[in-house]
Each structure stands twice: as C-alpha cells, then as structure tokens.
Write a structure and sequence with these properties.
Blueprint (H helix, E strand, L loop, with lengths): L8 E5 L5 H12 L2 E7 L3 H13 L4 E5 L5 H14 L3 E6 L14 H24 L4 E6 L12 H21 L3 E8 L10 H8 L10 H13 L7 E4 L6
Parallel strand pairs: 1-2, 1-4, 2-3, 4-5, 5-6, 6-7
Helix pairs in contact: 1-2, 1-7, 3-4, 4-5
C-alpha cells in the first residue's frame, strides 16, 4: 500500500461495487479522493473495490443502503459525513434497469425504478446541499434520455426526470454546488447481456464501435475539473443520441 497523502476531498459513489460505479470510484481514488462506496447487495465486490482503493493510498469505507427504502436513503449522507466530513463530490450512479412496456409495467416495477433512479438521487442531493457549502454532483443518466424507449418505460422515464433534476438542481444550488450529468450509451452490456450483441448494434452508431469505462471516466474528470460547467449532460455514446 502506498503512503497516505492529503486527500483532495471525499466522494460518495452510489452503486460503487460494480461496473461503471466501480470504475468511477477507482478513478477518483487515483485522482486523490477518499471514497465512500455505497452498495446494497454486492458486498463481496464492494470489499474488493475498497481493497483496490486502499492499495492506491486512499481511504475507503463501505456504506450499505437500500435506495428503495426512503429511511435508509435519508440516513446515507449523514452517515458518510461522520467518517468523511470533507465530502465534496456526490456521484449518483446506482440504478436499476428492468424491461417493461407501458402496458406491461405494474405499480411495483414503476415505483421501484422511480425510488432508486430518481427519488434517491433527489434526496441525496438535498442532503448533500444541506450540509455542504460547496461541492459537485454528477448524475449518471442514459443516452435514452434523448428518445423514448417503449421497451423500458419506467426506466426511461426515471432517467428523463433525473436529467430534469440535474438542470433544476444546478440552477438552485449554484454557485456553491455544480450539478451535471453523463449520458452513457454502449459502454457495457446490461447484466446478463452479450458483448457480441453490443458490438453488432454498435455498427449503427456514427462512430461504429462500443465505448468503455475509460471514456466515461474521462467525462467525469472533465466535469470535476471545469469550474464553468453546470446543468450540463454529456453524451458518452458514440453518437447514439443522434
């Protein structure tokens, strides 16, 4: 393990145990941030990512929270602040992605998507703003915010509303807190998806290839390091939104 240096600050990354969240958490650690790593059901992957972050010489603490439960969600930022009073970055990455057209979507599926993908970020941003004089929020959206996907009705609606929340929060919380979003496209196949199928679909994109988590991490770094950008959503999707 490398020696501990003074951190840039601390970042809370929701859904930080796997996939995009894990890549963002590792990148923030490399850039000098201590990391509050949120997870719910992925304890073992979360512990592995935490070990990798600590090997980089940064502090990492795990926070288990069910974002579908408002009481647990409300307690998350205060719990993080107890261990990281210098918390100044919030990355709302955690989400669920379940198939269902308008006709197929029942109340439970609808409410689950809105609780985790929209309400949790809303109240996490609120708590972050209440206890912080400044800082930055990055919401992980989806290229689907630029169109209407009938096969994932609740998911797409929740991400569209998260985009509107990003703009609304940027307007209200500035200048102290900047709020931005990133809309990824074909970065990773969905859980259980097939990489070859993603590659095939990518041939319809202007850039005719898939992306990777490094592309998304580059967007995170741009947003964190450009003090004159707020209320923006960057598409990292190879032109899919076009």
């Amino acid at each position: 393990m490398t020696g501990m240096s003074t951190p840039k600050g601390a970042a809370l990354v929701t859904g930080g145990a796997r996939r995009i969240g894990a890549a963002v958490a590792r990148a923030l650690a490399r850039d000098g941030y201590d990391v509050a790593l949120h997870y719910f059901s992925s304890a073992e992957p979360a512990e592995r990512v935490a070990g990798e972050i600590e090997a980089l010489g940064r502090r990492c603490r795990l926070f288990r929270c069910d974002l579908n439960d408002h009481r647990e969600t409300s307690a998350l930022v205060p719990a993080v602040r107890e261990h990281f009073p210098n918390l100044d970055v919030l990355v709302n990455n955690a989400s669920i992605f379940e198939r269902g057209t308008l006709r197929e979507t029942g109340r439970d599926l609808f409410e689950r998507h809105f609780n985790i993908n929209l309400k949790a970020p809303f109240f996490l941003i609120q708590a972050f703003a209440e206890s912080r004089a400044g800082g930055q929020v990055i919401n992980i959206l989806d290229t689907r915010v630029s169109r209407s996907d009938p096969h994932h009705a609740a998911y797409t609606l929740s991400k569209k509303m998260l985009l509107e929340l990003t703009k609304m929060a940027a307007r209200e919380l500035g200048p102290a807190i900047r709020v931005n979003g990133i809309s990824p496209g074909m970065i990773l196949p969905p859980p259980g998806g097939v990489v070859d199928e993603l590659e095939r679909r990518s041939q319809a994109l202007p850039l005719k290839r898939t992306g990777d988590t490094d592309n998304l991490v580059a967007a995170v770094r741009f947003l964190l390091n450009n003090p004159f950008v707020t209320g923006e959503s960057i598409h990292v999707d190879g032109g899919e939104h076009l």
